[in-house]
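Sanity check

After download, print the first record. It should look like this:
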Amino acid sequence: GANEDIFAFQPASLGANTAGTYGPGLYWDGSQHGWADEQVDGLDLGGGKLPGDSIEPMADLDLEKRDAVDPVQVGSDVVYTVRVRNDGPATASGIVMTDTLPAGVAFVKATGPGASCGESGGVVTCTVDDLAQGEQVDITVTVNAGSEGAREHQAGVTAATFAPNTSNNTD
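Expected structure tokens:
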């Protein structure tokens, strides 16, 4: 049947010290993950997979916030952009951007091409269409500055696609 080709392979022979990213969209974490048509450290992994394991595509998402000119008048709207970019190598799917709003602002709207956004309890949540490698989406968030004072907030992005680097998923 499909995906039932098995090769002789001892995961311990590679060991955890070989953990890392290999080839286009393949990941080895030192455990028994499968590989397809790859060689690692000169060991031919035979183009098969281990029973019960899967080959997972990887997509490195990057999130960056950009705000409008400061300062802002109390009672006026503030518009900022949250950019989500897929640095690849695989297409990212199941993308969700969240932005926790600070106290003292009121949500007005959030929009972006290929994004469906809403707000609940001070958290803006946007589901984003799949992004191929190199693609990005700019989500424009509008809030109303209800009181004076400095405001900081943190946005983050997750995806169903495995992310080998999560250090650039928040801003």
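If your output differs, re-run the checksum step. Summary of this record's structure: The chain has a mean pLDDT of 75.
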